[in-house]
Design brief:
It is a single chain. The chain is α+β, with helices and mostly antiparallel strands. The chain has 3 domains: about 80 residues, Calcium-transporting ATPase, cytoplasmic transduction domain A; about 100 residues, no CATH class; about 150 residues, Calcium-transporting ATPase, cytoplasmic domain N (3-Layer(aba) Sandwich). It is built from 12 helices and 13 strands. The protein has a 6-stranded antiparallel β-sheet with strand order 7-12-11-10-9-8, with helices on both faces. Strands 1, 2, 3, 4 and 5 form a 5-stranded antiparallel β-sheet that branches. Strand 8 and strand 9 form a beta hairpin. The longest helix is centred in the N-terminal third of the chain and has 31 residues. The chain starts with 10 loop residues before the first strand and ends with a strand. It comes from Luteimicrobium album.
């Protein structure tokens, strides 16, 4: 269906790779994950359930869903944002505001001062009648005007504008996009730098920082460890794999396992599961998979997770399910065996450190 043909109350089928063409409400969902980074700047995908809203401009990165259209055209969220962004607002400049105040005061004061100057010049030439009869009033008016012109601070306006223009040229030579002349003044007054992480410090993509095999005696050559790594490789090789699965499967040399059954991820459960030839596995947050556990394997794994999470990383756990594929309608069993801890993080831009160091050297501290 063409975008122009979509109207209110249409029902759309969205699948992996589709861009959401209009605002809507999810009717039925199958593991739907939405990338809303174009709207919010946050690269982490958002999992949607029935009844949740989806917004135009976002992209389906996993799963599928049917959506009831609730807003199109100018009423859609993306269009409203674009309209707000196109509105022009003048940057506030204290120098310009100060000059405007001076000009306002001078404009009010100049009229009575001009009259007083003219009156004093007429009196100096013998009074109003004498000045008119002798024609000296012309010289009096010229003298009054000359005095008033000297009161107008046109040089202040000119010098300020020239300084702004010169500063804009110098900034442009440094590769800075200057949209308004007072930009240099605004920049000079900055003392706190607030940054949106995604797209500014990071490039918006998730990568693998570290991976730990935590099976008893587990090393990459061990059969159980190799099988677990093969499951991660299979999850990453899935055409509908999300960013987390792709990152968790980075650099695995083992062949992808054959997946025979699966439980899709749910934001309510916070885990997904797959069944392979030898074992079933659960992938999710360590605190969810090992909740309420006090055994040595759980304690050691959670200690490793806390250490990794303390660096600002995102941590996911792959665990064996000895009893087979868990029932999505019941709580997870308490016999899950931690297998692989994956430490994930967004890629930091190569010039981020240099840029932040420059601002720090200029006395601009973090918020």
């Amino acid at each position: 269906m063409a975008l122009a043909d979509i109207v209110l109350d249409d029902v759309l089928l969205l699948a992996t790779g589709d861009q959401v063409p209009a605002d809507g409400t999810v009717l039925e969902v199958a593991g739907l994950e939405i990338d809303e980074s174009m709207l919010t700047g946050e690269s982490r995908s958002v999992r949607k359930q029935s009844g949740d809203d989806v917004l135009s401009g976002s992209v389906v990165v996993a799963g599928s869903a049917t959506v009831h259209v609730t807003a199109v055209g100018a009423d859609s969220y993306a269009q409203r944002i674009a309209t707000e962004a196109r509105r022009f607002s003048v940057a506030r400049s204290e120098l310009r505001d100060g000059i405007n105040k001076v000009l306002a005061v001078v404009s009010v004061a100049i009229v009575p001062i001009a009259l007083l100057l003219a009156w004093s010049q007429l009196r100096a030439t013998g009074g109003l009648s004498e000045s008119i009869s002798s024609g000296a009033w012309r010289d009096a008016v010229v003298a009054a005007v000359a005095g008033v012109v000297g009161m107008i601070p046109e040089g202040l306006v000119l010098l300020t504008s020239l300084n702004f223009a010169l500063a804009a040229i110098l900034l442009a030579r440094q590769g800075v996009l200057v949209q308004e002349l007072p930009a240099v003044e605004v920049l000079a007054r900055v003392d706190v730098l607030c940054l949106d992480k995604t797209g500014t410090i990071t490039d918006g993509t998730i990568g693998l920082r570290d991976r730990h095999v935590v099976l008893p005696g587990g090393d990459a050559r061990d059969g159980r460890a190799a099988a677990a790594l093969g499951v991660l490789a299979a999850l990453a090789a899935d055409p509908g794999a999300n960013a987390t699965a792709l990152a968790a499967g980075e650099g695995i040399e083992e062949s992808p396992a054959t997946v025979t059954d699966a439980v899709p991820f749910s934001s309510a459960r916070k885990w997904s599961a797959v069944a392979a030839a030898e074992h079933a596995y659960v992938l999710g947050g360590p605190d969810i998979l090992l909740a309420g556990r006090g055994d040595d394997a759980a304690r050691d794994t959670l200690a490793l997770v806390r250490e990794a999470a303390g660096t600002g990383s995102r941590v996911v756990l792959l665990a064996e399910a000895p009893a087979g594929l868990p029932d999505p309608d019941h709580p997870l069993p308490h016999d899950l065996v931690p297998a692989v801890v994956c430490v994930l993080g967004e890629h930091v831009r190569p010039d981020a450190e240099q840029t932040l160091a420059y601002f720090h050297a200029q006395g601009c501290g973090p918020s």
